[in-house]
Structure prediction request, 398 residues.
Amino acid sequence: MEIIFHRYGSICEPDIMEAFQSLGLTVIEEDAEIYQKSIEPEKRISMLAEAILTHQTSFVFSINYFPYISQVCERLHVLYLCLSVDCPVLELFSETIRNGCNRIFLFDYEQYEQIREENPDNIFYLPLGANVARWDQVISGLLEKYPSVQQRYLYDVSFVGSLYTEKSPYQSLPLSAFDRGFGDGLIEAQLRLPGLSLIQEALTPSFLAALKKASPETFSVMSDAFQNIDAYIAANQLLGMRISELERIRTLNLLTGSFPVDLFTRSDSSCLTGVRVHGGVSTHLEMPEVFFRSKINLNITIRSIQTGLSQRVWDILGCRGFLLSNYQAEIPEYFTIGQDLDCFENAAELKEKIAYYLAHDERRQEIASRGYETVKEKHTCLNRVLSMLQTVFTSSDP
Prediction:
């Protein structure tokens, strides 16, 4: 079986491609977008069509959804599989999502519930996973290099990820003083209510209009055929990014008064005080070492992921790291809290649990070991690819 794997440079692509290959599929990489970021749409379409027609293509696959791929596959009567690893993916709100060729897999159940009716037979829920075999290779070398527990740990509390200072356009929008105050008030209210999602329902027509006027390009790529799409974009792309930015900055600043905190990021970190800031880390070599050599790895989920588990969750556990995550509704679906990982629901609980686990090495290591075994047994990238293929090829053809 030959498949076309469209690549644009996502860090998740090598792991999924490896899983396909391990099942005996022949993977033809369509990777022009990695090297030609400004490639013209017409050329991109013609290159994909040529690749499909040149090979005996069973399906085209991509990480995240691309409307133009769906259009090409619909016209050529070829299946299009995609796995969403980000949220929001605004391209999902293209009318092409209704094409019969699509087999779309979403990892956030709330997002799945929001759009499933747009193509009910062809949109599915599927959590993310980890390439444990890859991480095992890296970790085995670290175990040889640092054989004792005393040698192993380099960091007490670590966070690997963006602060969203470079991805949050809200602060630079030209809003009136009234609209700015209204938006800031919504943001602060949401930050104080981590268990509720109130932004989208609280948006007024006048504030939405102000946001669209201030940032028309943010809304222009979406279709008017989707109900409440403007409110979704405002809540998740504009205000949601700002909420995530503030939440991460405030959380890290709060902790530094009590614990040593190490941050690995490419974001502007000038807003932090007392945090030991490192640069970004390479995904396949440096990141697993940070996860493995940290006593506590934090996960602070971006607010636009409403119920699901980000890739960070699976990778920390797959690297045998101890994970302390904000609570997400889907965590109990896959893990036992307190046995595979632990969670916090507010800043006070976070500080309390960090103090506890730094003082109880054996308990922390037991949980990290159990979490690793759970992911290795049930939640690998190969598990997810098998689930996708079983779902697609036990359903009817387009």
